[in-house]
Amino acid sequence: MFITDTGILHRLLRIQDYDQLLGNPLLGNSWETYVINQIALEKPDDIDLYFYRTHAGAEIDLVFAKGLKPVAAMEIKFSPKPSVSRGLLNGIESLESNNNFIITPTENDYFKKENVRVCGVKTFIEKYLCSL
User: Fold this and answer.
1) Burial class (CB in 10 A: 0-12, 13-18, 19+), 15
2) 1 lies in a domain?
3) Average pLDDT of the chain?
4) Which of 39, 59, 69, 77 is disulfide-compatible with 82, CB 3.0–4.6 A?
């Protein structure tokens, strides 16, 4: 079962406060769901959202497409210092995506690699989402 309402998820998991959330093994899943929900609410109508996974196991949390053409790829990590995974790099190469992001719970905004930007969800929505 996939619960898209993080408030309901936290209630079902009996998470009472932020400290309990930080110690929960589903923190990353909760963060990913929250970010996807925020982006889905704000994205332009001509952008479609997809999940990407290869048979070899490489995956990307969110692919932004116009029509069937990928225009951006995104990993969502609950980490202030995320790394760029081989799966993300392989997916970017396969999709030929030039706009790539890692979303973190911080409001940092910097390039981790030549074509992979790290930023917070608010920064992504305000600065980059409409320009995809």
Assistant:
1) buried
2) no
3) 91
4) 77
The C-alpha atoms of residue 75 and residue 71 are separated, in whole angstroms, by 14
Burial (CB < 10 A; 0-12, 13-18, 19+), residue 85, is: middle
Residue 20 lies in a domain: yes
Residue 61's CATH number: 3.40.1350
Q: Are 63 and 72 in contact (CB under 8 A)?
A: yes
Q: Domain limits at 103? A: 6-131
Per-residue model confidence as pLDDT tens digits over 71-115: 999 999 999 999 998 889 999 999 999 899 999 999 899 999 889
- pTM value is 0.88
> How many structural domains are present in the chain?
1
